[in-house]
Design goal:
The complex is a heterodimer of chains A (about 80) and B (about 170). With about 80 residues, chain A is an alpha+beta fold. Chain A has helices at about 5-15, 35-70, and strands spanning about 20-25, 25-30. Chain A has a two-stranded antiparallel sheet with strand order 1-2. The longest helix of chain A has about 35 residues, at about 35-70. The termini of chain A are far apart. The relative contact order of chain A is 0.07. By secondary structure, chain B is α+β, with helices and mostly antiparallel strands. Chain B has a single domain (about 10-135), classed as 2-Layer Sandwich (Alpha-D-Glucose-1,6-Bisphosphate, Chain A, domain 4). An eight-stranded antiparallel β-sheet of chain B has the order 1-2-8-7-6-5-4-3, with helices on one face. In chain B, a hairpin with a 7-residue loop joins strand 4 and strand 5. In chain B, helix 2 (about 35-45) packs across helix 3 (about 45-50). Chain B is globular, with a radius of gyration of 21 Å. The chains are: A alpha+beta (about 80), B alpha+beta (about 170). The interface between A and B is large, with 34 and 43 residues.
Amino acid sequence: MTLTGMKKHVGVLEQAGLATTEKVGRVRTCKIGPRRLEEETAWIERYRQLWDARFAELDKVVEEFKRKEKVHGRKKRE
Amino acid sequence: MDARRESEATPMKNRTTVERKSEREIVVTRTFNGPARIVFEAWTKPELFKQWWVPKSMGMFLRSCEMDVRVGGRYRLVFGHDASNPDEFFGRYIEVTPHSRLVWTNDEGGDGGPVTTVTFEEKGGTTLLVMHELYPSKEALDAAGTGAADAMGETFEQLDALLVTLGASVGQS
């Protein structure tokens, strides 16, 4: 395989997320394997956004609860 | 417009963090500006729980929410706009310590689903909430997180086969 062919080949793998490359000076190092770490970071961030949205709503529930308790005093137990 | 007004109504928004603690565990933490008593109620009283569990941005609709919050008691959440095609989540409470700790199973996927532990720790009028989800295996957590991304296959044999295919298609072009 020619160098150009190789570059193309690696480029396709990179686009498909099956390889990563890193250039340091004149040397480009290729690593084969899916982007596991990036994938994991992406789903963890999606998960975080879900919980962040939920908790923003929960903040409102807590504020409302505190406001009501202030109004009624703290007698309202149960 | 509406979203902006809503965010202004919540003056102090705390940070939500998510961390994969181990191959089988994921941990979510968040501080709330209120006592543990109130935060705990919001997790255990259906009428309060319904107000926050499904934020509008999720585009989902919580049809019903039943919670029998005591050891051995069951919960059931039913989602979906269409009653004939509901999406259900259910399980059983295995630990209930008022205002400090809740543990439940997630049984919708059959036996051996993840176990969720939520702790509420009060500090000077605020509450640190830690939600811990323990999956039966690394694979179960990976599948829950990345879903189809994992279907790409991990074995070198499969990757080799793919390389050959990709190599061939590049060679042709």
